[in-house]
Design goal:
The chain has 367 residues and is of the alpha+beta class. Helices cover 67% and strands 8% of the residues. Strand 4, helix 12 and strand 5 form a beta-alpha-beta unit. The relative contact order is 0.06.
């Protein structure tokens, strides 16, 4: 039951859960502001009756709950800032400005929550956004002072309020500076993390993928064979290894050049990719040798895949890159269950590939 309530509030998405936890923490802090406003009213520090303050608090919390609902529903993920930080800061600023207007005295007390509100923007807003919120706060306070001075002069000490405004503006200026510095650090760390993540992806790709063909490397395939061996022993499944070697590849390089040879290797890799299933693994074992791991299958089922690879290469049209070029492949096959050893299965598939070459090449040998 508790897990269901937790998932209902925070969701199972880690990023969305983090946003909601921060949102609830912000709501808890804003509840303290509301309690403070009730205390102001109880202490007769506000201009108007309790009913007006009640309406203001209801409107304020209705807005906060609406924002929270938008965040929780995932609608805010379409926005540049899914946490809606700037919207919430401006909404809270309007609430505090209203309290500043209602206070008969001690308006500087209501300025203090501004610094807590502005601190929420340190890790979300860029310099321009942070400056916009700060300018709104300062000029909002100035507007309240001028409005009171013109319309309700008995409720304000103008000189005192102007000094407070100056101090408030200077403090906000410092917060803008520190906020922009923190934001620059945040952006810098994020960029470096992105660079490190990209470097890690590149290193992983280089370690697992052949640079020319895009197939897996020999080392990665050996790891997958070890994993498949463990799976086979656990669920009594079988897998098949295809050992393929391009026929007369040295002659292709000597006659047409290594550039054409590379094109042949790339096209054969594409043929392997399109011929096997998503759960299978194709690798370049070295030079013109390729090894394919066909999981959860047997020799009879694998013959169709091997034939599809052989037939596709035999009938592949290389005339666009090298007129007269014709490429074939010899393939040897072996199933793991017959030997229960990766090395013996690989060696058997390799030997059968050489037997296919001895029998005239462009053949498949499975026994």
């Amino acid at each position: 039951m508790l897990v269901e309530i937790k998932d209902l509030i925070f969701t199972t998405d880690p990023k969305q859960a983090l946003r909601m936890s921060r949102q609830l923490a912000a709501l808890a802090a804003l509840m303290l502001f509301t309690i403070a406003s009730i205390y102001f009213s109880y202490s007769n520090m506000l201009k108007s009756a309790d009913i007006l303050l009640l309406d203001i608090n209801l409107i304020f919390w209705a807005g906060l709950l609406l924002i929270t609902l938008v965040i929780r529903s995932g609608i805010s993920q379409r926005f540049p800032d899914p946490s809606m930080t700037m919207v919430q800061m401006l909404w809270c600023s309007i609430y505090i400005l209203t309290l500043i207007y209602l206070l008969n005295d001690w308006r500087s007390i209501a300025l203090m929550p501004y610094f807590a509100i502005l601190s929420f923007g340190y890790f979300r807003l860029d310099f321009k956004e942070f400056l916009a919120v700060t300018v709104f706060c300062v000029f909002g306070y100035l507007f309240v002072i001028i409005y009171l001075y013109v319309n309700e002069p008995l409720r304000i000490h103008f000189d005192k309020e102007m000094v407070q405004l100056l101090g408030f503006a200077m403090t906000c200026a410092v917060m803008v500076y520190t906020g922009s510095a923190v934001n620059n650090l945040r952006v810098g760390f994020r960029e470096r993390n992105d660079q490190l993540a990209e470097a890690l992806r590149l290193n992983t790709r280089l370690a697992t993928t052949d640079d020319l063909t895009g197939l897996y490397t020999r080392r990665y395939l050996m790891n997958m064979l070890s994993n498949q061996k463990a799976l086979s022993e656990r669920d009594d499944s079988d897998f098949v290894i295809l050992f393929a070697d391009l026929d007369h590849f040295k002659h292709i390089n000597d006659s047409f050049g290594h550039y054409i040879g590379d094109i042949v290797l790339k096209n054969f890799a594409d043929i392997i990719r399109t011929s096997i299933r998503e759960i299978d693994y194709g690798s370049r074992f070295g030079g013109e040798e390729f090894v394919v791991l066909l999981v959860n299958t047997d020799i009879e089922q694998s013959k169709n895949i091997a034939e599809r690879i052989r037939h596709s290469l035999e009938h592949f049209n290389f005339s666009d890159v090298a007129p007269g070029l014709h490429v074939t492949v010899s393939i040897g096959m072996a199933s793991y269950k017959q030997y229960n050893s990766i090395q013996e299965t690989l060696m058997t598939a390799d030997n059968r590939m050489y037997l296919a070459k001895e029998q005239g090449r462009n053949k498949i040998v499975s026994e």
